[in-house]
Amino acid sequence: MLAICCASVIVVVMDISIVNVALPSIRRDLHASVSGLQWTVDAYTLVLAGFLVLAGSTADRVGRRRIFQVGLAAFGLGSLLCGLSPSLAWLIAARVLQAVGGTMLNPVAMAIVATTFPQPAERARAIGTFGSMTGLSLALGPILGGALVDGFGWHSIFWINVPIVAAAIVCTALFVPESRAARARRFDPVGQTLVILVLGSVVFSITESRQLGWTSPVLLGLLAVAALGVLGILGYEPRRVDPLLELRLFRSVPFSSAILMALFALCGFGAFLFVTTQYLQDVRDLSALATGLCLLPVGALVVVLSPFTGRLVGARGPRLPLLVAGGALALAGGASLWLQPATPLPAVLATYLLFGIFLGTVNPPITNTAVSGMPRSMAGVATSLASAGRQTGTTLGVAISGTIAGSVLTRGETAFMKAEHGVWWMVLGLGLGIVVLGLLSTGRWALNTAAGAAELFEEVDRGADFRTAPIGHR
Q1: Do 420 and 272 touch, CB atoms closer than 8 A?
Q2: Which is deepest, 118, 197, 259, 401, by most CB within 10 Å?
Q3: pLDDT by residue (tens digit) across 157-190?
Q4: DSSP state, 252?
Q5: pLDDT for the residue numbered 473
Q6: CA dist., res. 230 & res. 45, Å (int)
Q7: CA distance linking residue 447 with residue 430, whole number of Å
Q8: Could you give the C-alpha distances from 293 to 146, 296, 336, 350, in angstroms and in order?
């Protein structure tokens, strides 16, 4: 059962990083624009970000194994259609179908793992193994993607998912027990629609801003839709008993900081992957496989550091890993400003080591901070929102970096390297933001706000809903 769940997280997460290595080949083969390449990545991560929470609550209600199998089937069909894509529009549509399946896999797999291992020690080991698969996926993605692109073409990076998913569907039917939550959260169609409107409008505006211009009526209209969507969420969600976005969680400073840090972290890493694969292949003329091997230090450090970081967080808390992660990201952004087309490759790889240190130390403390002080009844919602923050960050990282640097790639390496500096300054700022939030979220005042939020939800669990409690008890 654990192997099946781990296989699901590997294919879903790997499809975020594996595609980046294939982007130059996709651009040449399908004559894609830079915004088209951005949507090849963002169509996937945007859907993942928008529907993660819905998929988890639906599985709690109708059955986790059933939703898991539906997700596997959708992901496998989407992968097959991606591999058969004759055009960019077809590819992007198939990526959306892939992502719809992906939303039903990771949060549901985590719930299956948690319910299958009732003993705390066993559960901790199982969740640790499951969580380490993210690092393994990021390590495998660029290398496997590079080998497949060089050997069989970019279509093969999607075909490889099909036999894995087919085997997982059969094994799920044989070995994974059906389970449901004792109390499933209700479906929130209005909240879900508002979330998609906000995320979709913002990402589309950023992605198409260079082509349409920020004064375009289309972009101004979309930004207005996004603003109205945010106001709608703030006005509507607190009125529901089971909102899609549990806004009361944000009363906890550690939780709010964890969501922002997740967004900052993956925004920086998404920008790094999008720009770096094009720098290595289009500027330095490396093959796809050589590009994957250049990114090996990143994945290797994630695999090595993630378990150690998890133990460190358990023993000493999340502050030190967060400071290391934010500092490494800021240093990586600063060091990348010095990279040139002729920079010696060892110096380039040393810079990538900083990104590996960052990614290997940032995820465990973010997850720990998100659930810090929360009652068990809200842990699943908190981790789902943290995962949504990560996917949103990846989406924004690709959208912003493509807008800054991607559009000048056809004008030569000098123009690209100059524009690329804007991306690295952004990455440097995101790293410093993580350092500040890491300090803010781990102090005594922050922990007291988390305790206050936990008491609020414990009252709700006992039936004393916050919305109907007397003012003096709120």
Answers
A1: no
A2: 401
A3: 999 999 999 999 999 999 888 877 666 667 788 8
A4: S
A5: 43
A6: 20
A7: 23
A8: 8, 5, 18, 13
Q: Are 447 and 254 contacting, i.e. CB atoms less than 8 angstroms apart?
A: yes
- Report which residue type is found at 237: E
Say if 371 falls within a structural domain. Answer: yes
Q: Which two tokens stand for residue 266?
A: 């993956």
- Residue range(s) defining the domain that contains residue 464: 251-474
One domain for residues 46 and 88: yes
Instruction: Please check whether residues 263 and 374 belong to one and the same domain.
Output: yes
Q: Please state the rounded mean pLDDT for residues 414-432.
A: 88
Q: Are 69 and 14 in contact (CB under 8 A)?
A: no
Task: Establish if 244 belongs to a structural domain.
Answer: no
* Residue bearing the bigger pLDDT, 373 or 193: 193
The pLDDT of residue 350 is: 92
- The CATH number of the domain holding residue 4 is 1.20.1250.20
Residues 259 and 348 in one domain: yes
DSSP H or E segment with residue 113 = helix 106-116
- Whole-angstrom CA distances from 331 to 187, 335, 356, 393 are 43, 6, 12, 19
d(CA 438, CA 133): 25
Q: Report the pLDDT value the prediction gives residue 471, as an integer from 0 to 100.
A: 43
Contacts of 270 (CB under 8 A, 6+ apart): 41, 45, 393, 394, 395, 396, 397, 398, 401
Question: Which pTM was predicted?
Answer: 0.80
Residue 245 lies in a domain: no
- The answer to whether position 411 is within a domain reads yes
As given in the structure block, the two tokens for residue 318 are 């999340």
Distance separating alpha carbons of residues 87 and 91, to the nearest angstrom: 6
CA atoms within 13 A on the CB side of 248: 22
Among 21-25, 302-306, 328-332, name the most confident range: 328-332
Last residue of a domain, one of 163, 187, 211: 187
pLDDT in tens, 44-83: 888 887 787 777 777 877 888 899 999 999 999 999 999 9
On the question of pLDDT at 293 being above 50, the answer is: yes
121: helix, strand or coil: helix
Q: How far apart are alpha carbons 92 and 97 in whole angstroms?
A: 9
- Could you tell me if 117 and 129 are in contact, meaning their C-beta atoms sit under 8 angstroms apart? no
The vertex-408 CA angle with 405 and 414, nearest 5°, equals 95
Cβ atoms 123, 117 nearer than 8 A = yes
How far is it, in rounded angstroms, from Cα 169 to Cα 11? Answer: 13
In this structure, are 142 and 204 located in the same domain? no
Same domain assignment for residues 416 and 466: yes
Q: Using CA atoms, how far apart are residues 311 and 319, in angstroms rounded to an integer?
A: 13
pLDDT of 201-235, one tens digit each?
888 888 777 777 778 888 889 889 999 999 998 99
